[in-house]
Amino acid sequence: MVKHPHISLCRLLIKIPQRYLVRHPWQGILVVLGIALGVGVMVAIDLANQNALHAYELSVESVVGSATHQIYISGQDLDEQIYVDLRRQGLLPTAAPILTTLVSVQEAGGTVFNLMGIDPLVDTQVRNYWGTSVPLNEFTALLTQPNTLLVPQALMDSRNFRIGDVLHLEIEGRPVEMKIVGSFPSSRPYQENILIADLATVQEVTGKIGRIERIDLILETTQATAQIAALRQILPAGMQIAPVTARQGAIENMTAAFRLNLSALSLLALIVGLFLIYNTMTFSVVQRRPLFGLLRSLGVTQKEIFAIVLSEAALMGMVGALLGLIIGVSLARYTVAVVSQTINDLYFTTTVRDVPLYPASLSKAFFVGLGATLLTAIPPALEAARTAPRNVISRAFLERKTRLSLNTITLAGVGLLGTGLLIMWVLHTWAGGFLGLSLVILGMAAISAFIFQKMVQLGETLLGHILGYVGKMAPRNLLRALSRTGVASMSLMVAVAVSIGMGIMIFSFRQTVITWLEQSLQGDIYISAPGFSANRLLTPIDPQVLPFVRNWPGVARADVLRSLMIDSAWGPIQLSATDNPDIGHERYFKATLGSYATLFSRFQEGWVFISEPLANRANLKVGDALQLQTPQGLHEFPIAAIYHDYASNSGIVMMWLPVYRKYWDDSAITAIGLRLKPGYDPQSVANDLQRSLPTQQRLTIRPNRVLRQEVLRVFDQTFAITSALRVLATLVAFIGILSALLLLQLERQREFGVLRALGFSRHELWRLMILETGLMGFSAGLLAIPSGLIIALVLIQVINVRSFGWSLRFALDPSALWIGMVISLLAAILAGIFPAFRLSHLSVAETIRYDS
Q1: pLDDT score recorded for residue 822
Q2: Domain-located, residue 558
Q3: Which UniProt keywords apply (predicted)?
Q4: Which of 431, 473, 567, 714 is deepest in the core (most CB within 10 A)?
Q5: Alpha-carbon torsion 743, 745, 748, 749, what sign?
Q6: Is 545 helix (H, G, I), strand (E, B) or coil?
Q7: CA angle 782–784–788, rounded 5-degree value
Q8: Average pLDDT, whole number, for the chain?
Q9: For 278-312, what is each residue's pLDDT tens digit?
């Protein structure tokens, strides 16, 4: 084919897309907004994940410094004499002891800092906070004056602190006053979040006299193996030496599932946006088929037509992606706070704030958004390029081709659906679950077009009897323009189905947690020390509290709980020891070894209960032996039961308290559960205890009802970001269907003008247009219900189990179904109102003369 001499590819690429977007600004604006929201969600989540991970890395760097290895006991402090003995034997050439604790500073607005107790004489070998030299006066004051500390210079400047000022700290619920005797440079981010004191000072204010947390070492790479072997030969049983990177990696792996799930859920919003892009690009191609046919007849090649459509998509994709970066950075202020709080509650506490943006996250989101836009635009671009000129101009050819291809599309949808289910069945991984879910969603979308056609055909029969000729015309118009209406309804169905699925998953999780709380919280009052994590009660309670509450009027029994984090082969896990004799009846068991009658006796003999997430992560079952590192060395504990637990996906081991004290030699307690005698009001007893406790430690005393409410509040907070993603995905869907139906109605302006010329009144035109869009919205909403239920089942039965290790009970939330239907109908009806209003106010001559 000879190329027309006056048509150049450059002019086509510039003029045609520009002119089309100028003449249809709302179409471009809505597409750009849809892309921007999808990219923005991805940016916000990725920044939150990166900030959380970076915050942990900085927190580790702040206390580890240049250390390569650590000597420690899992879950316990060390006797400082061990450090002294190793020093005397010359086995610690470069080493420093350390004791850390989290504190809140009243003068800093309750901000949390990491208080580090160090030996200033040797610590500079491992950590150097002073730079090249240590000011002698600060060094001397830190060693000789009680309750003194050094603060970062950034804190001194921001809060106008001076040397000699007294700070009011809260340490494990106890008020402590400490005086500033100096400052240190805070040029690096992690240095802004620590306070430094002498080791003896921190031992005193924490009540850990003669104890250290660990010994940090710097071992030369060439000699490390020999030095480690020599140390292991003389270290007491239960004491470990491990690389810093090993412990850090275990923590990062523990949060990987949480971070990956957020990323995957953010991609769902982008997937919904991609359906919007596909829908809009298909619509723009169909709308300009006569133009493309004319260009092909004039000699424009297939490649040039393809380039025109793709350049248009690229332009909208770039603008949308750039706008998405701005939206994402703004949303990140919210997502960073929510994700950080969730990680603090579930995994670990960090003290790093104001972590900067990451160019890698921004560039990744930009190119993913642009690339996804181009990929989604390829099918309609190929459709425009490959069709013969004569067929391009013929609208009837397009609709006939669409109807004939429905069976093929439906079979492809069934294939995608089956492939997705097969992948989830075969690949028992997190990635396999999400890949399978994506294929299931695509499969349901493809199948929905065929079902939509049948539903509209049924609607023609029913509405014709009820509404007469208008009731027959509306469904026929939808079927006549199936190339447009089918894609629009498919896009709306997918978006609403995703919203329904996520809503039911959250509701099912919440109902499961409520059942779990009713089963596991049987006490009347619970006492714990305040901490910086809502889900992990790890702060020891003043020992004098237990005998006091046991003798309090109305208390029938006081059960003790000791919880701590220990290392395991699967990363950090929580060890909880209790003396509750009813523990066998207060756990929601998934599997037990033997009857309930023998369960508690085994528990007292040294068998353990493990949580379902730990069993799934470690592939353990009842009867297996669980190896734990105790202060006395490695010991095996047989597993008597596996129970459902939703407090931590890292895993919990439940042990009988006397057994724990036998192996860990630890008399501390972290929580007390009180059972009251009949006739006593839990709230009144809790209030009286709060006023009368003989301790300066601030304790949290909560009746059962209040504790349940607090747990559910934390749950809602944990799922706040998931709910926000659901809302954003729904918003993208709303914009998508609104733009698609709005443009569809405006394109038919001449057709409606002809109807007016033939005698249609404005009222009848309103009825026809609202009925068409309403029928599309109703059909899409109805199709979204079974699709949403399938998505919810996959999220509950596959994704949650593989990502977090816990199983949930499916609970149907009727509100998720009717809200989805309302969204679908509302978007569709709103899309019909504007063109109906606009066309009803145009004269018949104007509508007929209009040329799109």
Answers
A1: 87
A2: yes
A3: Cell membrane, Membrane, Transmembrane, Transmembrane helix
A4: 473
A5: negative
A6: helix
A7: 135
A8: 80
A9: 766 666 676 676 777 777 777 777 887 888 888 88
- Same domain for 66 and 161, yes or no, is yes
Total tally of structural domains belonging to the chain: 3
For 586, the enclosing helix (H) or strand (E) is none
482 shares a domain with 440: yes
Phi, psi (degrees; rounded to nearest 5) at 240 = -120, 155
Q: How buried is residue 414: exposed, middle or buried, by Cβ count under 10 Å (0-12/13-18/19+)?
A: middle
Whether 656 and 738 share a structural domain: no
Q: What is the torsional sign of CA 799, 801, 805, 807?
A: positive
pLDDT digits (tens, 9 = 90+) for 732-767: 666 666 666 666 666 667 777 777 777 777 787 788
680 shares a domain with 563: yes
**Can you tell me the distance from the alpha carbon of 456 to that of 826, in angstroms, rounded to the nearest whole number?**
19
The continuous run of DSSP H or E covering 254 comes out as helix 244-287
Please, what is the end-to-end C-alpha distance for the chain in angstroms? Answer: 29
Residue from 789, 65, 31 nearest 372 by CA: 31
The alpha carbon of 700 is separated from its chain's Cα centroid by a whole number of angstroms, namely 29
Q: Which one, of 228, 208, 231, lies nearest residue 220 by Cα?
A: 228
Query: What mean pLDDT do residues 58-80 have?
Result: 80
Q: What is the mean pLDDT of residues 232-248?
A: 80
In Å, how far are 34, 61, 477, 704, 742 from 747, measured between CA atoms? 21, 61, 13, 62, 9
User: Of 201, 218, 250, which residue constitutes the final position of a domain?
Assistant: 250
Q: Is the dihedral of CA 180, 184, 186, 191 positive or negative?
A: negative
The whole-number pLDDT of residue 264 equals: 66
In 3D, which of 376, 274, 311 has the Cα closest to residue 41?
274
Helical residues (DSSP H) of 387-429, grouped into ranges: 389-393, 395-426
Q: Would you say 481 and 289 are in contact if contact means Cβ atoms under 8 Å apart?
A: no
pLDDT in tens, 653-694: 999 999 999 999 899 999 999 999 998 999 999 999 988 888
pLDDT value for 552: 92
Asked, for residue 395, whether it belongs to a domain, the answer is: no
d(CA 314, CA 327): 19
pLDDT the model gives residue 455: 85
Choosing from 633, 665, 698, the residue where a domain stops is 698
Q: How far apart are CA 335 and CA 341, in angstroms?
A: 10
- Closest C-alpha among 385, 451, 440 to residue 414: 440
Q: Tell me whether residue 587 is in a domain.
A: yes
| SS3 sequence of 117-166 | EECCCCHHHCCCCCCCCCCHHHHHHHHHCCCEEEEEHHHHHHHCCCCCCE
Domain match, 512 and 535 both:
no
Nearest 5°: phi and psi at 195?
A: -120, 145
pTM over 0.85? The answer is no
Select the more confidently predicted residue: 824 or 658.
Answer: 658
The CA distances from residue 164 to 103, 178, 180, 181, 183, in Å, are: 19, 10, 5, 6, 11
Backbone angles phi, psi at 806, to 5 degrees: -110, 145
Same domain, residue pair 512 and 580: no
Number of neighbours of residue 719 by Cβ within 10 angstroms: 19
Q: What is the span of the domain harbouring residue 793?
A: 423-520+706-852
Which of 232, 377, 234 is CA-nearest to residue 316? 377
Does 726 lie in the same domain as 674? no
Q: By 3-state DSSP, what share of the chain in percent is helix, strand and coil, each rounded to 5?
A: 65, 15, 20
Structure token digits, residue 409: 């599309």
Question: pLDDT digits over 18-31, tens only?
Answer: 676 677 676 677 77
Alpha carbon distances (Å) from 631 to 238, 240, 293, 449, 566: 4, 10, 81, 64, 11
- Cβ-contact 292, 393 below 8 angstroms: no
Report the SS3 class of residue 508. Answer: helix
Q: b/e per residue, 168-195, with b = 16+ CB within 10 A?
A: ebbbbbbebebebbbbbebeebbbbbbb
Q: Could you tell me the two tokens for 296? A: 């092909």
Query: Residue 669: helix, strand or coil by DSSP?
Result: coil
Give, in order, the Cα–Cα distances in Å from 591 to each of 580, 603, 722, 821.
20, 14, 30, 40
**Quick check: is 332 in a domain?**
no
